[in-house]
Amino acid sequence: MSLPGANPRTHPAEVVSRLGEDELEQLLGNDELVGWVRHELGALDELVAQWNEPRIAYLSPEFGLTALIPQYAGGLGILAGDHMKAASDLGLPIAGVGLLYRDGVFRQLIEEGQQEETHHSVDPRGIGASDTGVTVQVPMPGREVTARVWRIDVGRVPLLLLDTNVAGNAKRDRGITDALYQGWGHHRAEQEMILGVGGARALAALGWPVSVFHLNEGHAGFITLELIDRVIENGDVGAALERVRPGLLFTTHTPVPAGIDRFDRDTIQPYLEIWADRWEAPVDDLWQIGSDPEDPDKFNMAALCLRVAAEANGVSELHGEVSRGLFAGVGIGDRIQSVTNGVHARTWTAPHLQTVFDDLLGEGWATGDGEAWDRIVDIDKAALDAARQQSSALLSDMLRRRTGADIDSGALLIGFARRFAPYKRATLFLRHRERLVELLESDDRPIHFLFAGKAHPADQMGKDLVAELVGFAESADSRGRVTFIPDYDMDIAAGLVQGCDIWLNNPIRPREASGTSGEKSALNGGLNCSILDGWWAEMFDGKNGWAIPMSGHEDPEARDDEEAAAVLDLIEAIRDEYHTARPVFNGRIRHAWQTLGPRVTANRMLREYRDRFYGPALERTS
User: Fold this and answer.
1) Which tens digit of pLDDT belongs to each residue from 64-111?
2) Cα dihedral value 96, 101, 105, 107, nearest 10
3) Topology, domain 347-600
4) Residue 319: enclosing H or E segment and its boundaries?
5) Contact 319, 255 (CB under 8 A)
6) Was domain 53-341+606-621 assigned CATH 3.40.50.2000?
């Protein structure tokens, strides 16, 4: 039966809402379908009934749960979504807090080789959100803004999304939560006030006994104002801060100053004055908490969070080291620890491969059980080859549907999918075009490059990279063996990490804080070929993939030329091994599974947060 709006990019709740009476009657007459729906709903109800009343809040500006819920822009949001899912798996008493973006996240179009953007409006109920009936007020200069609180259950974990598109708000205020990372200045500041102050008030209005607040990046740092407001006496901001500090944890995700929200004094001071006047305290006391160590007339959200949090961490061992240097001027940068990011195994591993793992390893593989992964050495060649071939076939089908492109049967598939930020160097391999064309011309040992990713609408350099790559893919030189897949989302990401044989990553070290796409590929039997940056710097062992040699040149052009040549050298060697020494290649896959499987899961990550941070923080605040 063909249903209105029934396409892979439409949430089931929205599809059902569009059905007419006749169509509903027809579906209700399908006993098999109704039985399946009842079974799934029963299992979901049973799971949600096991929830623990939240005592920990995880605040993030974006959450990537599924492509059907467009409330994420990139890695930060995908990580937040995986954090929620792993917390549900472990039964941790956590609630997520974010914003509901009515315009969703921009969709990418490629018009005449250039990236263009469009938005599609989001109906909260159409993405499975329910109205909690709670609204909160957040003070802004000269007014208060109302935010409605929506809820999405992520298994046993509730996710609250605040929405200012509420009757009674001025038109300007209804648009505060319109779109993710669009606009700057007052608009961004007010989004972050809603997230931080509004988020804390939403949790309190629901009556949840939350005492620990985990800030995923600095966007929620204004929660500090609300928490201080609850305990301050006699205008003593410092003493109040010491009382709220034990329950605050901050995770930084950026290794470069440009990735931090830094506001001008004229922008932020009016918001701080609201609280200073309320407490009869000097506004400078609040300004100093977030004062930028390099420019005292800038308000630095990461500096704010570092100064108020009891604990702070980077998202890989290398990133922790980089962060201690980056934030040395804050005065407490030496306390930054690290918890390496992981990915939710059941979300990202191909379903048919999950079945193989469940049968061979037991269900512990998905939680990072090392003993379970040790049994992967027993996977035989036939099972491994069958699983990889099925993944490749599914990827080929997706490409055909999305782009019309075909892949040579048996080609080595090399994937690259991430935000098109200049430091990630998506077009690095194009620097030695003649050498690349030579590799692409081989019919005996074919390779096929698959690229996906968006540039931020305001990032012209990123857009130029998209155009350069699309231009090469459409040229005769590519021989149809370089494909760009537009409108990158979680579904495209899943298809690529599940089907590609090699995952390519060549950022400028050390600007990749962690990166998780390569971890997803590793779970699916893809082998990483990467600069030793982020998570790969600590998990590469010389046999479970390849490390791209790094140049010693300080000159960026010379460095990029050398590292581009190194990438092509490695790809040629990998291609030859794949096509002429498959037992060696398959041995690498087994070894990569055994050494990386226990380490790349979000369940491992959540256990670290639980044992090292959440547990002690709950004890401090109980």
Assistant:
1) 999 999 999 989 999 999 999 999 999 999 999 999 999 988 999 999
2) 140
3) Rossmann fold (3.40.50)
4) helix 317-326
5) yes
6) yes
